[in-house]
Design a protein that fits this description.
It contains 13 helices and 8 strands. The protein has helices spanning 11-14, 66-79, 103-111, 126-138, 145-159, 163-169, 174-182, 188-196, 201-207, 213-222, 227-247, 253-266, 288-300, and strands spanning 37-38, 45-49, 53-54, 85-89, 97-101, 116-121, 270-275, 278-283. A hairpin with a 2-residue loop joins strand 7 (270-275) and strand 8. Helix 6 packs across helix 7 (174-182) and helix 9 packs across helix 11 (227-247). The longest helix is centred in the last third of the chain and has 21 residues, at 227-247. The radius of gyration is 23 Å and the shape is globular.
């Protein structure tokens, strides 16, 4: 699938991170109260009451640092909002506006008790709004690796993108995208440790494919495992991952995407081996119980 080049260009000019929930201090005004004021001499920039703006539900960020939001609020109190946010009119209520990008500025403006915020209003479709909002977050820093992985997965599922497509959109290598996506095969408890910062990305990546990643992660957190032992696990599993990547180096991006989607769906290692135009899919299991689970999942696909 070909990715439109416009999606990966220029987003950083408009967009900011999204931040934690803060109370909305301003009451929305009605349609006839002149809620949108056009700023003179600046094309397409309007001033919209903060209370007439609602956040975009489609964002990967789940964990936030409130102190950073408070710092931005102090800056806004002093200097105002220096960059307009990007919005579209709410379909159900034309007096309201949905944020496409710039939610962090909007929340900080709420915290600073700013009455109005500069905005650019665009008539984006649901698909464009979802896609741009998601890509905007993925191009920002400070997402946790798990949030990042979920964002990539959401792009692939929602828009039928391959890993190669995603890598071009977010300006990352395909191997980087693939490695981040592998974290989603870890148990939920281990993913939570990564989100909280208790387990680093390098340690988490090393746990992918190990026999009992949760037990190992807990040992690291409890201090039962030394830093040196943890590093040995990292190095051992890095070699394993590198060997795994070399096995599929001759596969094109579509087959790599299929391989990893199957592995994610079945929660086990899947290999694809090619011989000319023919090949085979190898699904691995540890015992008969796991085989039964895999069979059940295959029957439901």
């Amino acid at each position: 699938m070909k990715v439109e080049s416009r999606l990966g260009k220029g987003l950083s000019t408009f967009f900011e991170n999204k931040q934690p929930e803060v109370p909305v201090f301003h009451t929305p005004v009605s349609e006839n109260q002149n809620q949108v004021k056009e700023q003179e001499n600046l094309n397409d920039i309007k001033y919209i009451p903060v209370g007439n703006i609602i956040p975009n539900e489609n964002q990967p960020r789940k964990n936030f640092k409130e102190e950073q939001l408070e710092e931005l609020a102090l800056s806004i109190e002093k200097n105002g909002v220096l960059q307009p946010i990007l919005v579209r009119r709410d379909k159900k209520n034309p007096a309201m506006f949905e944020i496409i990008a710039g939610e962090r500025r909007w929340r900080a403006a709420n915290l600073a008790r700013i009455n109005e915020i500069p905005a650019i209003i665009k008539d984006f479709s649901d698909k464009e709004t979802f896609e741009i909002g998601l890509i905007e977050n993925l191009q920002r820093e400070n997402l946790s690796p798990i949030e990042e992985a979920n964002g990539y997965k959401k792009l692939m599922i929602s828009f039928d993108y391959t890993q190669e497509d995603v890598s071009k959109i977010v300006n990352k290598s395909r191997s980087y995208v693939a490695n981040v996506l592998r974290l989603l095969s870890l148990p939920k408890e281990v993913q939570d440790m990564v989100n909280s910062g208790d387990i680093s990305y390098s340690i988490a990546r090393s746990l992918v494919g190990t026999e009992n990643p949760l037990k190992t992660a807990k040992s690291i957190l409890k201090g039962d495992m030394t830093v040196k032992q943890a590093e040995e696990i990292v190095q051992t599993n890095k070699k394993s991952l590198n060997n795994e990547e070399s096995e599929v180096s001759e596969l094109d991006s579509e087959l790599i995407s299929i391989k990893e989607n199957l592995s994610d769906t079945l929660k086990t290692k899947v290999d694809i081996k090619l011989k000319g135009k023919k090949g085979e899919i190898i699904i691995k299991f540890n015992d008969l119980s796991e085989l039964n689970l895999i069979t059940t999942k295959l029957n439901n696909i």
